[in-house]
């Protein structure tokens, strides 16, 4: 094997010089096969096999296309980002984003970026939350914002501004987007500054918010779930809504690989915990709405709202009571109904868990009643849960 180091000449020129030198040393028409490594600044750039040197050296040079990585201006980067967005613009729409780094709102998806030295990017030091947008209103914005600030406190991230200003920024971002159906997702990071472990070099924490436009799915048919083999996060991290969602991602991928909608986590004591991004609830044979305790899992805003709304079903006699306590797997699997609760699914009935059919294997009446209550609450609930957006 032959090699050449060059730090000052273009690779294509280096290739030509090398092959000419190689050709002079091996002037036969059919030289033995040789593996040739080419180096750029001491690093292997590519390898090729040379068989015919004398007669085909120039043809080899002409056939090998060596492209240098371009150095782009800011304007060229933005142009390329816009072209990149065009390739998948039908996936999701992002009509507006706020960033405290540039101190404003942008409606250009190409500018919706986060600095690489932000510690949320390379250290996972950040928290987030989401509020649904329904009929031009932000649903449970204050409940989500309160949880967001609790998560930031546990993650030891200082606020860049007070709660009221943060709330106004979020509402203005939705207003600018003109989006009336979708969701608002927002993050708080320890901020950009360096690539070290400690955030001590970050000058200020950063707030980001983006509006995601979509129409809600009308599919509330029964689904299948499996017990997850992915370890659940420890309570400190499970109860904090941080951006460290790799366990959640693997949990969801495991379900999809097994042809199911979601996986169900068990806690360290073997009790039913939660799904990858939703809570779990059951209707027992005694007609009691049962939900796992929130001391080791995320306190779901949708789940807590369902608990409050379910009192209507108690009054109507459709269920006998509501209880939050530890739930065993055996108890969950023999329940009359099982459902997933969360902003992404609202109320989704589960008809099979692992190999166990839940109830009669059909969507249950309590899950349907709770779904109707949540949908009605989102459309015409009290001002405490519906914040109008001033478009």
From TrEMBL:
BP terms from Gene Ontology: amino acid biosynthetic process; carboxylic acid biosynthetic process
Pfam families found in the cross-reference section: Aminotran_4 (PF01063)
Keyword Signal: no
MF annotations from Gene Ontology: catalytic activity
Cofactors, names only: pyridoxal 5'-phosphate
Stretches of the chain forming a coiled coil according to its record: none
Keywords: Pyridoxal phosphate
UniProt key word ATP-binding: no
InterPro entries: Aminotrans_IV, Aminotransferase-like, BCAT-like_C, BCAT-like_N, Class-IV_PLP-Dep_Aminotrnsfr
Similarity remark: Belongs to the class-IV pyridoxal-phosphate-dependent aminotransferase family.
Protein name: Uncharacterized protein
Organism of origin: Carnegiea gigantea
Record lineage: Eukaryota, Viridiplantae, Streptophyta, Embryophyta, Tracheophyta
């Amino acid at each position: 094997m032959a090699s050449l180091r060059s730090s000052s000449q273009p690779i294509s020129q280096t290739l030509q010089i090398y092959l000419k030198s190689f050709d002079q040393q091996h002037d036969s028409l059919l030289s033995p096969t040789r593996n040739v490594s080419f180096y750029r600044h001491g690093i292997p750039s590519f390898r090729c096999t040379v068989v015919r040197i004398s007669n085909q050296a120039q043809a080899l040079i002409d056939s090998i296309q060596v492209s240098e990585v371009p150095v782009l201006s800011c304007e060229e980067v933005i142009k390329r980002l816009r072209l990149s967005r065009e390739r998948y613009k039908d996936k999701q729409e992002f009509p507006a984003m706020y960033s405290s780094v540039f101190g404003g709102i942008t409606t250009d998806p190409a500018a919706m970026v986060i600095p690489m030295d932000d510690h949320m990017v390379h250290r996972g030091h950040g928290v987030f939350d989401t509020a649904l947008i329904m009929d031009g209103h932000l649903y449970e914005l204050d409940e989500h914002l309160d949880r967001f600030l609790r998560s930031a406190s546990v993650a030891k991230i200082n606020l860049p501004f007070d709660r009221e200003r943060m709330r106004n920024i979020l509402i203005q971002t939705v207003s600018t987007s003109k989006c009336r159906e979708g969701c608002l997702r927002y993050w708080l990071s320890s901020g950009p500054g360096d690539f070290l472990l400690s955030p001590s070099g970050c000058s200020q924490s950063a707030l980001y918010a983006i509006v995601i436009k979509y129409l809600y799915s009308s599919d509330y048919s029964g689904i299948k779930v499996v017990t997850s083999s992915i370890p659940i996060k420890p309570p400190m991290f499970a109860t904090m809504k941080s951006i460290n969602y790799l366990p959640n991602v693997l949990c969801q991928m495991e379900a999809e690989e097994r042809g199911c909608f979601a996986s169900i986590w068990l806690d360290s004591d073997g009790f039913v915990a939660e799904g990858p991004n939703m809570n779990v609830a059951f209707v027992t044979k005694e007609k009691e709405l049962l939900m796992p305790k929130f001391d080791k899992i995320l306190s779901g805003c949708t789940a807590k709202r369902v608990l409050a709304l379910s009192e209507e079903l108690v009054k109507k006699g459709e269920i006998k009571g509501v209880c939050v306590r530890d739930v065993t797997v055996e108890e969950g699997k023999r329940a009359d109904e099982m459902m997933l609760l969360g902003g992404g699914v609202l109320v989704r009935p589960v008809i099979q868990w692992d190999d166990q059919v839940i109830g009669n294997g059909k969507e249950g009446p309590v899950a349907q009643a709770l779904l109707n209550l949540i949908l009605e609450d989102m459309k015409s609930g009290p001002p405490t849960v519906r914040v109008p957006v001033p478009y």
